[in-house]
Write a structure and sequence with these properties.
The complex is a heterodimer of chains A (about 500) and B (about 180). Chain A is an alpha+beta fold and about 500 residues long. Chain A has helices at about 5-20, 105-125, 235-240, 285-295, 300-310, 315-325, 410-415, 460, 465-475, 475-485, 485-500, and strands at about 20-30, 45, 50-60, 65-75, 80-90, 95-105, 135-140, 145-150, 165-170, 180-185, 190-200, 210, 215-225, 230, 235, 260-265, 275-280, 330-335, 340-345, 355-360, 365-375, 375-390, 395, 400-405, 405, 420-425, 430-435, 445-455. In chain A, strand 4 (about 65-75) and strand 5 (about 80-90) form a beta hairpin. Chain B is of the alpha+beta class and about 180 residues long. The chains are: A alpha+beta (about 500), B alpha+beta (about 180).
């Protein structure tokens, strides 16, 4: 159910004016006529014979000991006997009655609540490209409680882009079984999940296992924090020295969203084969661009996605061009000629959970440069590790799937059968239970998920349909990123808060 | 939990908030702005030790008697000493709209993302309390000293039965169906 803020405010306005009034009634004997509540718009003068005058307006004439006013005289059965201007002698009155109507205090309480509530909703709708999106979210215990540790196949925004994604569950203890993974659909998206598995790599004491971009898993020792981290804004060492939730990020360039920045890292001299360990996630800049592209494509989004599905080379090239202009995190090492040479580029799509990758480096490398688009990435952790050997993790399929606390054998069968898919809608949540094989020192855990997702077009986006600007983004992405810089900079201060606040959650 | 389930939860919460209603005929009690310019009595329910009950318009309440005009039948004069419990509805509080308001507000928190964890409980607590309070505002019960004095203010004849009143000629409010 969707309740618009305009609807809420209209309801509040109607109710504030028209509903839940309270009545404050006072009765006053005629000898105390001077104390009548003059705020009362109506005065009722009850007579000795049971008749009553209802007067509005009314006033007390002190010199003539009477009440004068305009209104009606009602009989004992409250039928109207006379209508007009009346002068009522005080000695004919047995009791005066006044009533003052107030807005109920309850209305005031609910008005305040509604104002705050509508404000939160309006904030989200005013920043539609900041609202929560991007793929299934996976929550796994970090030993203290469930934590968002992975997001699945974030780049797979169409069936033809269905892909397998491996995320390091870096904070999962890995020494307890079963492992429970809660998979949620928290966005206005349809998720089509082919499978979700755990990759369990046995750990040796003092080692960790990391995934590389080529699909290999490396056992690593002597994991050292950087000695130096220098960013354009200054020292960033404390932010990247540990995987502690504190991230190094920066603001986007105000004239060109593709403008780059460089970070310098220095480590203790490695003793074996060195590798950079990098935990990172995207900022909301790529999400903003994706949603902006959808907005400009508007009603033709379906056509473009269909062309993508048909394998239209031109379309896929355009999409790739946009992605490349923003780029990933380039890892550079000192070159023999004194310059710097790129050895790899980390592109882990998605703004929700930091993923950890290992990038093997040339021997003796102890200095690294990272080149990345300003404001596009968040760096959680950087370290230099010594690689020992590759390992092959055990692939663990879910043993059970729970939905609303009850076993869901159909969902389990779908997640175990690669020919079937599990389709989830906003608010859906499943708990996947995995039984780990025995291992003396526990396991390093990775989440392997495959599927794709479909963004739901939102009316706020359709309103921005602009084929010319869509064409510019797809044909001249570098220019489009310059043109879009002011719009993003306007949204940037609040975009993170708006994004997280807009998660679709079923209570 | 689906939005439908949330709606049911909110409805149950509102209903469980102790909202007070009266047993008067539909349309008898009018909203406060109307009641201030009319001159009928409130709707009174009298309950007796033996389980019997009298409902009707409160015509007058004196120190020892209460006069009630049922929708059918003549004026009833009841000794107050025989009354086990009395409940008067003075006007229509229109608290149902506050219940709807609470439900709309609670459902609107579905768009609050993480803040829902805070905003929904606030609505589920404050909404029903506010609604319940509004529903009880026009209700007067004889459960405290001075209750009958306050009830008498909402009688058709707040000063007591007029002298010489032809009791058999009294008629109640004509309800528009």
């Amino acid at each position: 159910m969707r309740v618009s803020p305009a609807g809420i405010l209209l309801f509040v306005a109607v109710c504030t004016v028209g509903c839940a009034k309270t009545l404050q009634r006072r009765v006053t004997p005629p000898e105390e006529v001077a104390t009548l509540d003059r705020r009362a718009p109506f005065l009722k003068a009850h007579l000795r014979d049971g008749h009553v005058y209802v007067l509005s307006p009314w006033r007390h004439e002190t010199d003539s000991a009477r009440i004068v006013g305009h209104g009606v005289r009602l009989g004992v059965n409250r039928d109207t006997l006379a209508r007009g201007d009346f002068a009522v002698p005080l000695d004919s009155v047995v009791l005066f009655e006044t009533n003052v109507v107030h807005t109920s205090a309850s209305v005031i309480v609910l008005s305040v609540l509604s104002g705050i509530s509508a404000g939160v909703t309006v904030f989200c709708i005013a920043n539609p490209k900041a609202c929560f999106g991007s793929c299934p979210t996976f929550y796994v215990s970090d030993g203290a409680g469930d934590a968002l540790q992975a997001e699945g196949f974030s780049a797979s925004i169409a069936p033809s882009l269905e892909a397998t994604d491996v995320d390091h569950l870096f904070r999962a203890p890995g020494d307890r079984t079963p492992v429970r993974v809660r998979m949620e659909n928290e966005a206005l998206e349809t998720h089509v999940v082919r499978f979700v598995r755990l990759l369990a790599a046995p750990r040796a004491p003092g080692t960790r296992v990391f995934a590389a971009a080529d699909g290999r898993f490396w056992r690593a020792t002597e994991i050292a924090a950087p000695l130096v981290c220098r960013a354009p804004e200054g020292d960033c060492l404390s932010l990247v020295a540990q995987f502690d939730g504190r991230e190094r990020t920066s603001l986007a360039d105000s004239t060109d969203l593709a403008a780059r920045e460089v970070l310098e890292l220095a480590f203790p001299a490695p003793r074996g084969r060195p590798a950079l360990v990098l935990s990172s996630r995207q900022s909301l800049l790529p999400t903003f661009l994706l949603y902006q592209a959808f907005a400009w494509l508007g009603t033709s989004v379906g056509d473009w996605l269909a062309r993508l599905e048909r394998g239209d080379r031109a379309v896929s090239d355009r999409v790739r061009d946009v992605t490349q202009v923003l780029g990933g995190i380039e890892v550079l090492v000192p070159a023999p000629d004194g310059g710097w040479v790129a050895v790899d580029t980390v592109i882990e799509t998605g703004p929700l959970a930091a993923d950890t990758r290992v990038i093997p480096l040339p021997a003796h490398t102890d200095r690294v440069r990272l080149r990345l688009a300003k404001g596009a990435w968040r760096l959680e952790w950087a370290a230099l590790a010594t690689l020992t050997d590759t390992v092959t993790p055990v692939r663990v399929l879910p043993a059970a799937v729970l939905r609303d606390g009850r076993e869901d054998p159909d969902a389990l069968a779908r997640l175990r059968d690669t020919a079937a898919v599990l389709v989830t809608l906003p608010g859906d949540a499943y708990t996947l239970v995995f039984d780990l094989p025995p291992a003396a020192a526990g396991h390093e855990l990775f989440l392997e998920s495959r599927g794709y997702y479909l963004e739901w077009m939102r009316s706020e986006w359709i309103a921005e349909e602009n084929p010319l600007r869509a064409a510019q983004l797809l044909l001249h992405p570098a220019a489009a990123l310059r043109d879009l810089a002011p719009a993003f900079k306007q949204a940037e201060p609040d975009i993170e808060q708006a994004f997280w606040n807009s998660r679709y959650v079923r209570p | 939990m689906s939005a439908r389930s949330a709606a049911v939860l909110v409805l149950v919460t509102v209903l469980a908030a102790g909202c007070a209603g009266t047993r008067g005929p539909s349309g008898y009690l009018q909203p406060a702005p109307v009641t201030q310019r009319e001159a009928y009595g409130g709707w009174l329910t009298l309950e007796f030790e033996d389980g019997a009950r009298i409902d009707g318009e409160l015509i007058a309440a004196t120190s020892d008697s209460v006069f009630v005009l049922p929708t059918a039948g003549p004026l009833r004069a009841v000794p107050r000493a025989q009354v086990h419990r009395a409940v008067l509805g003075a006007y229509d509080a229109q608290w149902g709209s506050l219940g709807v308001w609470t439900m709309v507000g609670s459902l609107a928190t579905l768009s609050h993302g993480l803040i829902l964890g805070l905003s929904l409980p606030v609505w589920l607590i404050a909404g029903p309390i506010a609604t319940g309070a509004a529903s009880r505002a026009p209700i007067v019960k004889d459960d405290h000293p001075g209750a009958w004095v306050r009830m008498a203010m909402f009688a058709r004849f707040p000063a007591g039965l007029p002298d010489g009143l032809d009791r058999s000629a009294l008629r109640g409010r004509v309800l528009r169906r």
